[in-house]
Amino acid sequence: MSKTLSTALVGLVRFATAYLKPYRRVSTRAQVAEMLVPVVRVPSKVGDLVFTVPTQRSAYEPMHLQENEPETIRWLDSLPCDEVLWDIGANNGLYTIYAAKALGLRVLAFEPSASTYAVLTRNIELNRLDDRVDAYCLAFDDHSHLEHLRMASTEAGHSMHAFGQDHSVQGEIKTIFRQAVPGFSIADFCTLFNPVLPDHIKLDVDSIELKILHGATEILGARVKTVMVEVEGDQIGHQIRTFLSGLGFVEDIDYATGLGHTRNCLFRRVP
Question: Which of 64, 41, 68, 66 is nearest to 52 (CA)?
């Protein structure tokens, strides 16, 4: 029904503007498209969280904030408001905005997809968080290099991309576009740019989580208190658990109790 209605509305706009001169026709249609971009408002204890949703894919997460990943919300709710979160694989900024605006955390957000990054920065603007959130369009890896983000869809809000390889956690990517992206190890990124360092890391990139962790060995062992990693697959899960255990982290298997099956695993560094 929604697709049929959308198609009909597009046809109506095209028909209504068909008589215009070429430039005016294009300009008018562009203006209509801009004016029709919806905004979703999600209630929170400090007022509405505001999200622009220019694509169908980007509409889902804001409208399901509390139920999509309840374990992530529970973890974020437990973090002290004066600490720093790195959101690696931030997508459109759902948890970045929640952490910064509703909870008062300082956030660095990293999202390599250009179209999704544009939505992320717009959401930061809409929520007036440019003094609390810094967002960067780059990828992390276990070493620093220029590479490509393999994408099965360039639609803003889409996931299951992979940086520097042709498969995600769901298997081979049917790549329709390769976006050139600068990639850094977290160690090199910190040395080069001296960013505010994380107390907590959220890591969800659907592909090279373990390589990113390897590139962050020093700060993980020295200062990071908690790490939430999206884990899919027994083998990679075992490798991530073994690696983080070697740095003094233990998995908190109780934090998601009562929430049902979860794919996000929380690790805490033992003092």
Answer: 41
